[in-house]
Design brief:
Blueprint (H helix, E strand, L loop, with lengths): L1 H18 L1 E7 L15 E7 L5 E2 L4 E3 L8 E2 L5 E2 L4 E6 L4 E3 L8 E3 L14 E3 L9 E2 L13 E2 L9 E4 L7 E4 L16 E2 L4 E2 L4 E3 L3 E3 L1 E2 L5 E6 L16 E3 L3 E9 L4 E2 L4 E7 L7 E6 L2 H5 L3 H4 L7 E7 L5 E11 L12 E5 L24 E5 L25 H11 L9 E8 L2 E9 L5 H8 L16
Parallel strand pairs: 11-12, 15-23, 17-24, 25-30
Antiparallel strand pairs: 1-2, 1-13, 2-7, 3-6, 4-5, 4-10, 8-9, 13-14, 16-19, 18-21, 20-22, 22-24, 25-26, 26-27, 27-28, 28-29, 29-31, 30-31
């Protein structure tokens, strides 16, 4: 009898110890705020120990899959102090990193979070991996115990996190001021986002003037919109009724709630081409700051830190929109930026809440159908028209606009065992304005490219590169 009583007391003690550790906050939209020791901005999960004594987390597990509660095991020797916080970076690296004897260790899980994926779950389990609690993401009431399960993980929009309103409390809300490894108490909190409005005309090519209607799907809100490609903000024009479109136009719409506890949600966006006759695939990119690119703002452009944020739409050669995404663009290459026809890099950002990639096939030679990064190349110093003023190192009489592409195509057609950037000819519009014919290229120096064609995950490959020299 004494043995049974002793075992019962031990079990009660262990249960109370483990129940005091909870998932306290998480973010899948960390784009710029928190940089790790690899100089990367990763997703993260924060634990909180609400008890008065430290807890040894050795052998505990974190996971993003209900079917795999033991996906990543917390290393031996990891202890979370009383009333303390601890962050785990969801980078996929599966390692512990410490840059110096006096620096804190970084714990990297073997999985990443995605706010635009489907079916993701956050799980914290004890060493036995027993699932003791399951909580749908939509609910805000949380029962206390070891397993925290947040189904349908969707945060939406950048630099936000989901937090317990106060450390260890039952109620969950959204914050625009993530409290990475610090107390949640006093953080500004919101209940959610407005619904995305609906633009009635589908993106595509039309003949003649078109009438556009926008439906506001959020009650007690103000609908605002833009027609110049820029992103919708609080000071954008208010939608008051149908309007006419007579030329190429990028329309964006967003709802702003009168309830201060509801944040502006995602935009609907669509490009309408009027009386265009184009037989090539088309990219329509619309973002803030495009005019600065066109106006030679070298103080911004030359630093490569100028990255306009906005939308991308891809139309096939028949004029049908096959994909849409949201991310940022920046300058690509060196020589083309001395010319009017300039090369561009595009990066889709899961952290921005729309999707993580351009999800369609783009090249005839590949059945790849997911591209986070693409290059829209203007042929560099083989640009058209030719330059003869010597600014690019000499005369360029007879520029062909296809020399680099021709070499890559020969290498591919000849079966050479090298990475090439074969090309698809496309037309690019920026904020509804024609920017020219470009060479659409894959980006070989990219983890997604290596994973697609070689099967290597991101942590397995490191790229060493320089700019402007070998």
């Amino acid at each position: 009898m004494k043995i049974n009583i002793t075992l019962l007391l031990v079990m009660i003690f262990l249960t109370s110890m483990t129940a005091q550790v909870v998932i306290n906050e998480y973010s899948a939209s960390n784009l710029t705020k928190y940089v790790d020791q690899f100089d990367k901005t990763e997703d993260w999960i924060e634990l909180y120990n609400s008890g008065s004594s430290a807890v040894d987390l050795s052998g505990w597990h974190l996971s993003d899959k209900e079917s795999k509660p033991e996906k990543w095991e917390i290393p031996d020797g990891v202890v979370i102090g009383a009333n303390d916080h601890m962050v785990f970076l969801c980078s996929g690296r599966d390692q512990v990193f410490k840059s110096g004897s006096n620096s804190p260790a970084e714990y990297h899980t073997n999985f990443k979070l995605s706010q635009t994926g489907s079916g993701e779950t956050l799980i914290l389990s004890d060493p036995s991996a027993e699932v003791m609690q399951s909580i749908p993401y939509e609910t805000t009431l949380i029962e206390s115990d070891i397993i925290e399960n947040f189904g349908n993980l969707r945060i939406d929009l950048v630099e936000t996190s989901r937090i317990r309103v106060t450390d260890g409390a039952d109620d969950w809300m959204l914050t625009t001021s993530p409290s990475f490894n610090q107390s949640n108490n006093g953080s500004p909190v919101y209940s959610g986002y407005t619904e995305t409005p609906t633009i009635d005309l589908e993106a595509g090519f039309y003949e003649g003037t078109q009438s556009v209607t926008i439906t506001n799907n959020e009650s007690n809100s103000v609908l605002k919109y833009t027609t110049d490609g820029t992103n919708v903000k609080e000071d954008s024009p208010e939608y008051t009724g149908a309007f006419e479109v007579t030329e190429n136009t990028v329309i964006k719409a967003r709802s702003f709630s009168t309830d201060m506890q509801i944040l502006p949600g995602k935009m609907d966006f669509t490009t309408l081409f009027i009386d265009e006759n184009i037989s090539l695939p088309v990219f329509s990119i619309a973002a803030d700051g495009i005019q600065l690119l066109a106006n030679d703002r070298d103080d911004l452009i030359q630093t490569r830190e100028f990255k306009p944020v906005g939308s991308l739409e891809y139309f096939d050669a028949l004029g049908e929109r096959q994909a849409a995404s949201f991310g940022d663009l920046n300058r690509h290459g060196q020589d083309s930026w001395a010319l009017d026809h300039r090369s561009i890099d595009w990066v889709s950002r899961d952290e921005m809440g729309y999707n993580k990639a351009i999800n369609t096939e783009l090249f005839e030679y590949s059945d790849r159908d997911e591209y986070q990064r693409i290059i829209l190349r203007a042929s560099g110093d083989d640009n058209y028209p030719a330059r003869q003023d010597g600014n690019l190192g000499g005369s360029h009489v007879g520029s062909t606009h296809v020399r680099d592409e021709f070499v890559h195509q020969i290498a591919q057609d000849g079966g050479m065992k090298v990475d090439v950037r074969a090309v698809e000819r496309v037309v690019v519009f920026l904020n509804g304005e024609y920017w020219g014919v470009y060479g659409l290229r894959e980006r070989p120096v990219d983890h997604d490219y290596i994973k697609e064609y070689y099967g290597h995950e991101k942590p397995e490959v490191q790229f060493l590169s320089t700019w402007g020299q070998t």
